[in-house]
């Protein structure tokens, strides 16, 4: 029997120039709840600072979050922060967190796969193929490789690898997202990790 989705409460940071929403998870184990919610708050605070919340030239900051996965004790969230401080356009940064709500662990990409497995090479090859199939224009071709702890989130039995604005493509194209079915990576997946939990019958 699988666990129900974790309830969430939304907080709103609101000032004259700032409107940022972020969640708190409501978990039975209060130690785990505290650990996860602290990390969420820290991530949101760092994102706001990175985007210049204290910049005297700040015109507007808008932040929101999305639940990408909330099932089987796995929660994957994205945090989107847009800032405008003048110029031709604003800048948006995307961050993500993936948790096991049983123990409060958050995961980097490398922790999703077996130690020593060629996950970087496999994922990079899939992204290279998608770039060709989707005819994605790159700022600096050809695409070489992901970072060992490239940013990601989980959704619909897929892992979505993403890059920040300007990392791969011009601003006008937005964030480059690369959805990869977990079944394409199944032989590399760490046992008892979040990917294995999500694809289990």
Task: Tell me what you see in this structure.
The chain has 201 residues and is α+β, with helices and mostly antiparallel strands. 21% of the residues lie in helices and 32% in strands. The protein is built from three helices and nine strands, in the order ββαββββαβββα. It has helices spanning 30-50, 119-133, 194-199; strands spanning 8-14, 18-25, 60-71, 74-84, 91-100, 105-106, 152-155, 158-162, 177-181. The strands form two sheets. Strands 1-2-3-4-5-6 form a six-stranded mixed sheet. Strand 7 (152-155) and strand 8 (158-162) form a beta hairpin. The longest helix has 21 residues, at 30-50. It is flat, with a radius of gyration of 18 Å. The termini are close together.
Task: Find the structural class using helix and strand composition.
Answer: alpha+beta
Radius of gyration, whole Å: 18 Å
Tell me the major beta sheet. 6 strands, mixed
* Beginning-to-end CA distance, first to last residue: 11 Å
Poorly predicted regions are none
Strand-helix topology:
Layout: E1 8-14, E2 18-25, H1 30-50, E3 60-71, E4 74-84, E5 91-100, E6 105-106, H2 119-133, E7 152-155, E8 158-162, E9 177-181, H3 194-199
Parallel strand pairs: 2-3
Antiparallel strand pairs: 1-2, 3-4, 4-5, 5-6, 7-8, 8-9
């Amino acid at each position: 029997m699988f666990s129900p989705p974790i309830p969430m409460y939304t907080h709103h940071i609101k000032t004259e120039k700032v409107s940022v929403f972020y969640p708190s998870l409501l978990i039975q184990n209060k130690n785990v709840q505290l650990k996860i919610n602290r990390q969420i708050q820290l991530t949101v605070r760092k994102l706001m600072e990175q985007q210049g919340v204290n910049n005297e030239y700040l015109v507007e900051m808008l932040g929101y979050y999305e639940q990408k996965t909330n099932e089987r004790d796995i929660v994957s969230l994205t945090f989107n922060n847009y800032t405008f401080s003048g110029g031709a356009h604003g800048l948006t940064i995307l961050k993500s967190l993936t948790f096991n709500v049983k123990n409060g662990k958050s995961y980097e990409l490398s922790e999703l796969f077996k130690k020593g497995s060629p996950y970087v090479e496999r994922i990079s090859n899939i992204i290279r193929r998608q770039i060709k199939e989707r005819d994605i224009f790159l700022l600096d071709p050809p695409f070489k490789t992901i970072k060992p702890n490239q940013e990601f989130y989980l959704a619909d039995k897929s892992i979505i690898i993403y890059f920040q604005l300007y990392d791969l493509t011009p601003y006008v194209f937005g964030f480059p997202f690369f959805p990869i079915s977990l079944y394409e990576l199944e032989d590399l997946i760490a046992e008892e990790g979040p990917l294995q939990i999500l694809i289990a019958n």
